[in-house]
Amino acid sequence: MIAVIGDIHGCFYTLKNLVQKICSDYPDIPIYSVGDLVDRGNFSFDVIDFIISKKINFTVGNHDLMFYNFIKHPSSALGTAWLYNGYEKTVLSYDNHFDKLSQHLELIKNSPFFFNLKDCFISHAGISKNYDKYIYDDIDSSINKLEEIFKDGLEDPDGILWTRTELLNIGKMQVVGHTRMNQITYKKLNNSVYIDTSAYTGNMLSSVIIEDGKIIKMLTEQTDIRDFE
Asked: What's the whole-model pTM score?
């Protein structure tokens, strides 16, 4: 049994409240996030610091990777793209915390593109149906090849950081963010659940509890006004 949280986007107070709900109902459960910890909301620094303190696992999101590349490789395509994707509040959140910037960037650098677990497959945007040619017998036997492809195609619009196309049914549930929904949305056809419910716009932050490949509970938290105003 695991918990998976959707795109956080700097919404620290909302995240803290949601994690408290999860831990109250399911003490000691492993918690994961689909990434996009930073940008748009007010508290990107605090979100990453909280993620570290609570030992929450996360897959890298496109916003996290743009943040990293802007600092480390500012002339790269991913780096320059950050300037058009809500970077301002992330910069402000580190105003008095530059001593921790390197630690946070290293964490982003070392975060995986996916978690291929027994219960589900967690990634930021998911495996597009356009990647079906790379799946051989099953996802587990194809995973090493897929990881190489994802690393080589960081800017691929159908890649695991960016795709908004229909996802591939990979034989186990895909848990993804990136594509905003008004509420947690399960798509039976491709056995995928979308959990980015636009916390930074004032909607809510969402999570799912998954066991044996099934959603056994959904937990949500209305966005705390401090996170986006």
From this structure: 0.96
